[in-house]
Each structure stands twice: as structure tokens, then as C-alpha cells.
Amino acid sequence: MMSDAELTQTTTKQQHPISLYLKVWALLFVLSTLSYLVDYFHLQGLLRWSLIVLFMLLKAGLIASVFMHMRWERLALVYTIFIPPLVLLVLVGLMVSEASYIFALREWFFSLPGG
User: Membrane-crossing residues (predicted)?
Assistant: First the structure.
């Protein structure tokens, strides 16, 4: 059985300083502000979507790593949670590429004379 000193020492090692959470909260606020500024300045096209997705991924990464405590988990658990969605994103990218190819092929085929 653990003594009171050992129990206190064990529990204090697992607590994170409140300043860490406040810094992450402030960084999330800044990233959200930057995300809103993308629309405020009427950015268009690939730049707009790239910035929105970048800010979204940064915010999601901060939330998962700090507030969901993934930063302090074992690497095997982190891989178990994050690798399947990444694989799905790769598959979605492949499907987008294939869809663009099929769309271009259909446009070409239907533009042929007699088609």
C-alpha cells in the first residue's frame, strides 16, 4: 500500500499547469481569428481553402494533443487513434483524383463528333 507522501507525489506528476491550457486556449483563439480573417479579406480560390484547412488542422491537432491528452499518451495508442483517419484521407484523395480523371474522360468522350 502506498503512503500518503507517495500518493501525493504520484498525483502531482500527472497534473499539468493551468498556464499550458491558457496558452493553448489563446493559440486557438488566434487561429480562429486568422480563420475568420480569411473570409473578412475575401480571399478566393485555392489560397482560401488551403488556409481554412490549414487552420482547421492546426486547431484539431492542438485540441487532440493537449485537451484530449494525446501528447502524454504512449505512441502506440496515438498511432492506433490517428492512423486510420489518415489512411481514409489518402483514400479520399485517390478518389478525388480518379473522379477528376473520369470527369475529364466523359467530357472528352461526349464532345466527340457523333457522340
Answer: 20-38, 50-70, 76-96
